[in-house]
Amino acid sequence: MDIIRVISLLLDYPELQLQQASSDLLAIVRQADISAKQQLQLTEFINERSQSDIMDWQSEYDGLFERGRSLSLLLFEHLHGESRDRGQAMVDLMQQYQQAGLDIGVRELPDYIPLYLEFLATQGEENARLGLAEVAHILSVLQCRLEQRNSNYQALFAALLELSGVQVELEPLREQLKAEKPDHTNEALDKVWEEEMVTFGPGAENDGCATSSKPSETQRRDQYVPMQWTDATKPANTNIPSGV
């Protein structure tokens, strides 16, 4: 699905080339099978970002997704946190990519949301929908947290949630999240830095799972097998409030 690939690009670290491709991105949004509301929000997001200063955009991106864990773009951060289950989940997802023929090359953890979306975009419409549905509870939490931060990045997650076909009651979730303590402040970050960072693979933090967001030509759409994530009503990590 081209619209999922577009959202994957928009959720990745912003580069000048992305701004220059705004007309192509907008054309795909116009043709996407999504509601008029989501089309409008995505169009506004692309227009605003393509006209902004790239360094300002990158700085905002870092402030949102690189400070604290609540807006982490790593799926398993929200499911497993620092538990040992996270390592096995990484291995399982990596195997799924490899079995589908995903070409490995770029250094990135396999649960990085833009990478996961790039993978789903190659799996056919129904499989892509199933893949989004499996993580709908995470997408909804990220959408609501971005709303709280007054960020239009929330539009990207709202579109993904719509594409998943899962109906999530957002209002109770918004009320729950109001009680969360911010984790992106300097004080909160200092506490995190005192903890030992979890690493994956033999090479520690700089040698994590090396993956690529570009599928090979041999990747087949009928090879997708849904991952066993977690019950959406029983999140495994406290980063996601109960009842989501």
UniProtKB/TrEMBL annotation:
Q: Where is the composition biased (Polar residues)?
A: 235-244
Give the residue ranges for region: Disordered.
202-244
What InterPro entries is this protein classified in? DMSO/NO3_reduct_chaperone, NO3_reductase_chaperone_NarJ
- Name of this protein: Nitrate reductase molybdenum cofactor assembly chaperone
The organism's place on the tree of life at top rank: Bacteria
From the UniProt record, report the name of the gene that encodes this protein.
narJ
Signal peptide stretch: none
